[in-house]
Amino acid sequence: MSAKMKTLEEQHQDYQRHIAVLKESLCAKEEHYNMLQADVEELRQRLEEKNRHIEKKTQVAMQATQERNRINNELSELKDHMDIKDRKINVLQRKLELHEANQKLATGAAKAGEESSILKKQVEEQKRQLEEQRRKIEEHRKGLDTRVKQVEEKEKSIAEYEMKLKKRKENLDQREAQLQKGGGQAGGGAEVVQKLEIELEVHRQELEKSQEEIKRSQEEMERLLQLVQMSQEEHNQKDKTISDLQQALKNAQAKLRSQQTANAQREQARKAEEDESNKEEKINNWENGVDELEELLSVVRLKEERIEELEEALRESVRLTADREKGLQQEEVRRKQIMEKVGKLEQRLLSLQTAHALRCSTCRPLLTRMQQLERRLTQLLDERGEHLQELTHMKQEALEAAISEKDAHLALLEVSGLRTARHAEEAEQLRADRKRLMDRLKLETEHSMRLLQEYTPPPPLNTPGDNVSLSASSLSSLQGYSQIDQDQLDNDERTGSDSSL
User: How far is CA 347 from CA 344, 352, 355, 464, in A?
Assistant: First the structure.
């Protein structure tokens, strides 16, 4: 009888110790459940933030449409400028014809040769200006080609992003099936999955709208390229006109040399007054040429100022890159410190699990299942980090493309010349927009580094492999507690699935 009482007392002590261990395990699982709930809430907030980012992308697309309209206006202004050049060429042609008529009655061969050389210089100057305009249009065409390539790259990235969304939806369907098999407690998780599916469908529709907008942008770019090609053809026609004028000038000089000897003395007295009036007109023309030269010098000065501004922007970009590298190094140091802390906590958790496993022979399958769930959680957290990096990369590319567009528009506006107050106001607005985009790019970079550092997935835990067998009576008495652990692990699995979503 005393031996039986002693055995019962020992069993009672074993039960108490096992109950204490189970209570500690239950507390740990409750904390883990709370952490997973917090992760689910955080994912919902980030999904809302992603929706806001998509709205911002839509606004950026609208701004790109406005920029295209500005490019159309600038091309029309460039066409007007070329019409002015055509009128100047026609004026020079009429002057050349008038000069040929006057030279037939001129008296001095030296004066005739000098005036012919002056006209030749004027024609060469006009040709040089046309070459400069053609070079600028070629540079603008190259910029448009670059824009088209950027649009194609954006389409590829959007297609890849859509494929990833499709894969995530398939994973969500699988998770929903698992939750439905889990029982009545999975109802809340299924509702969350349905909400996420609705949100994903909305995102997919927004992506389709963005693709249509990009397609329209590409068509607009092709139309602009056609306009540039038409302008280049007009330039070729003007070059041909200049060559014809030069040939006509050579023919006129040959005729002058043959007629100067016969007409030198015959018309000297009669055309003296006409020569004087012609000289006055030429002086006026020369004064107009000096004014045009001053305008060209002012344009050259504006271009030099623009080059200095572009160099300053390049230095600012280099400085931002250095700041980003420095921030990444600091984040790496922080990540290592956090990983060390996580390692210590995992060792402590491992010791607790080892103590629990030594007292329960039926807990090994549960611990093995917990290990599998933790590995799955780590994998899902890694995937979430990759998605965050991809989203950050897309935002940075969009901002950099917008900055490049601002630079191209500002350069084109300055090349065409700031002739009116409206042009100057547009240039100031472009500079302000560019500065705002640079500040936003810097803020987005810092924000992305903070998001990536908020949570670093811990390494998978290793469960102990040794178990201690209990007596048959102890196993039968602890069956209820094992069932409690099984239910808790099922809840943890469902919670982990929601957190991965």
Answer: 5, 9, 12, 12
Q: What is the spatial distance between Cα 238 and Cα 228, in angstroms, rounded to a whole number?
A: 15
Rg (CA), the chain: 41
The closest of 281, 288, 154, 137 to 218, measured between CA atoms, is 154
DSSP 221-272: HHHHHHHHHHHHHHHHHHHHHHHHHHHHHHHHHHHHHHHHHHHTTTSTTTTH
Distance CA 213, CA 60 (A): 11
pTM of the model: 0.26
| Euclidean distance between CA atoms 444 and 324, whole angstroms | 11
Helix pair 2-104, 272-358: axis angle to 10 deg: 170
Distances from the Cα of 453 to the Cα of 184, 246, 337, 394, angstroms: 37, 71, 12, 19
pLDDT in tens, 414-460: 777 766 777 788 888 888 888 888 888 888 888 777 777 765 554 44
Residue 14: how many other CB atoms lie within 10 Å: 17
Where in the chain are the domains? 11-261+270-500
What does each C-alpha distance from 165 to 159, 215, 376, 459 come to in angstroms? 10, 21, 19, 26
User: What letter would DSSP give residue 462?
Assistant: P
User: Both tokens of residue 233?
Assistant: 């053809």
Q: Round to whole Å and give the CA distance between 443 and 454.
A: 17
